[in-house]
Write a structure and sequence with these properties.
Layout: E1 2-6, H1 12-27, H2 43-51, E2 55-60, E3 63-71, E4 93-101, H3 110-124, E5 129-135, H4 139-147, E6 151-160, E7 163-174
Parallel strand pairs: 4-5
Antiparallel strand pairs: 1-2, 2-3, 3-4, 5-7, 6-7
Helix pairs in contact: 1-2
């Protein structure tokens, strides 16, 4: 059984484990997220999301397969993107952060399922404007988001979550 639910502090260790699995693949040259072990994402990343009530978990038969943070907070650098609706009211913008699928569960469509959940969650919470970001080097994420109808609103050079020299791809979609 697959379910997506709001995460709790009890989900933090499994979220951190997924980050470590992704970082193992990054360091082995098998993926390109642009993340750095010990900098971002970390267990503290998941803990902060859980404490804020913004951590979401996709599980398969009780095992955590994917996690993300969903809120209305636009990352630094977003102000430099070429948004289709630059004057969207902040309380109508929902943002997806740090979506990760454990490599053990890759290829099962869980990334797509999570993004669809995010879209439904945004709509249920009165948010017509969807935003997210990824590193320019993360071709897999860019491909997925493009396939799901997200428009690249620009690439912003910035320091992101403590990682210098990031080329942040800002993406958007509207539910209008």
């Amino acid at each position: 059984m697959i379910e997506i639910r709001k995460g709790t502090l009890a989900d933090v260790p499994s979220a951190a484990e997924i980050y470590e699995h992704i970082l193992d693949k990054e360091e082995a040259g098998m993926t390109a997220t642009g993340w750095i072990r010990g900098v971002y994402p970390t267990e503290e990343t998941a803990r902060e999301a859980a404490e804020a009530g913004e951590l979401f978990v996709l599980s398969e038969n009780g095992t955590t397969a994917a996690v993300a943070r969903i809120n209305r907070i636009q990352a630094p650098g977003y102000e430099d993107a070429d948004w289709e609706y630059p004057d969207a009211p902040e309380d109508e913008v929902m943002v997806l952060h740090t979506l990760v699928v454990d490599p053990v569960f890759a290829g099962k469509g869980y990334g797509t399922r999570f993004v669809r959940f995010y879209e439904q969650y945004a709509a249920e919470n009165g948010c017509l404007y969807l935003r997210m970001d990824t590193n320019a080097s993360n071709q897999a994420a860019r491909g997925l988001y493009g396939h799901l109808g997200y428009r690249e609103a620009g690439i912003v050079a910035c320091e992101f979550n403590g990682i210098p020299g990031v080329r942040l791809v800002c993406l958007e979609k509207t539910l209008k």
